[in-house]
Each structure stands twice: as C-alpha cells, then as structure tokens.
Amino acid sequence: MITETPPRLEPCLPDTLEPGIVDPIAALSTSAEKLGARLHPETAGSLADLVRVMNCYYSNLIEGHNTKPREIADALQNLFNADGERRNLQREAIAHIRVQREIDTIYAAGLLADAASSQFIRWLHRKAFAYTEVCSWRV
Fold it and tell me: Model pTM?
C-alpha cells in the first residue's frame, strides 16, 4: 500500500541558512505580505489571472507541451490555432487554467482538501478532463 506523504509536495528548503541571508529573506517576506494586503481586489484578481497563465505555461513546458503564452492568451479569448496539434494544446491550457481558478476559489473559502489525498487527486483529474471535453466542442 502506498502511503500519502504531504511533505513530499512541500517546497524543498535548505537545512541551514547562511547568517547573512536570513534578514533579507525576512524583509522580502514582510514586504511581499504588505504589498499583497494593499492590492485592490481587481488588481489582485488580474495578477492572479496572469500568474495562472504563467503557471500553465511552465507546467505544460515541463510536460513537453510547448504552448506559447500568446497561444494561451488567444485560447482564453476563444481564438484557436488552425493547426490541430496547437489547438489541442490550447484546449489543454484552458482546462488547466479553469481548474486552477476553481482550486484558488476553494482555497480562498478555506475548503481546499489535502492536495496529497486520493480524493483530491481524483477530483482534480475529473475536473481537468471535463474542462478538456468542454473545450473540444467550443472550437
């Protein structure tokens, strides 16, 4: 039986830090928190949308799916590439972004399940495939 280990999904942090880096890290963290608290909700929402596109781009790139940011932005505007392979990558990107938006909404409500649980992973895959199917008839 495979045991779920949430710490494997957490960021890798060094065991020790050089003393000279501790204060700058703390200052950066504090500044980022202050900036986030001062953003207008519309600005924060726009920034979140941009970050989702960036995350989609890099996530797909890791998978070997080289969907350009412009192609992702076009797909979000229902502008799909005539080439079938590029269009399918755009569909995949839309599904990725829609699922991430749902995750963000659930997280903001304080209801996000354990990301390492089999229940969450099944939900995630069901959503991704459902959105991919929706995208295929829109073109």
Answer: 0.69
